[in-house]
From TrEMBL:
PROSITE patterns in the record: EF_HAND_1, EF_HAND_2
Taxonomic source organism: Otus sunia (Oriental scops-owl)
Skewed-composition ranges (Gly residues): 46-61
Gene3D superfamilies reported in the protein's UniProt record: EF-hand (1.10.238.10)
Start and end residues of each EF-hand domain: 68-103, 135-170
GO CC terms in record: endoplasmic reticulum; ER to Golgi transport vesicle membrane
Topology class, membrane: Peripheral membrane protein
Subcellular location: Cytoplasmic vesicle, COPII-coated vesicle membrane; Endoplasmic reticulum
GO BP terms, alphabetized: COPII vesicle coating
Protein name in UniProt: Peflin
Entry keyword set: Calcium, Cytoplasm, Cytoplasmic vesicle, Endoplasmic reticulum, Membrane, Metal-binding, Repeat
Amino acid sequence: MAAYPGQGFPGAGQPPAGPYSGAPYGHPPPGGPYGGGAAPGAPYGQPGGGPQPGPYGGAAPGGNAPPGVDPEAFSWFQAVDADRSGYISVKELKQALVNSNWSTFNDETCLLMINMFDKTRSGRIDMYGFSALLRFIQQWKNLFQQYDRDQSGSISFNELQQAFSQMGYNLSPQFSQLLLARYAPRSSNPSIQLDRFIQICMQLQSTTDAFREKDTGLVGNVRLSYEDFLTMVVTRMM
């Protein structure tokens, strides 16, 4: 019987109560298995960490948060909502999130996260979705820092292999090398930033869930038609 991995990181497990109570598919308990919060002042994963001196000119403005919304998240929402529409678009989210090297998050990761918290399927998120998204990013940031063992601000090949193993994935070194070749900048020692780490893990979990649905006998392999395969890819990874 196959044992499927991926239940120990943000986005895995059963949905919690309510539409915006953290990661939509479950999340680690407070201070859970991945240690405490992020290091103070750590740049990556902003605005989930602290105020960034980026395109919005330093600390986010204050204001009265509506019921059920964290005041800090509300302040960040006001700062990130550049067009004052009351919603955050992919473009606005991308401008607000940076990695440890101060590069902005890539479009694909921002779109994945917007879609995860977009309850109206409008391509945007409201302040409640944004508040939940910040908690989601902070959980990923904590996990990323745990696996970034040399504190370089990026995940190397060995660190990625260890991360997969601790998540419960039995994946070959060749698969990790393939991911780095696809998502890491070319170098003699390729590594990925937080945004790509989130993207890879979200897509890996989504594809695993799709495979699990087909593997009704839990034997670890399935037979798929070509169209079933394409359907799985389109619905889970795009």
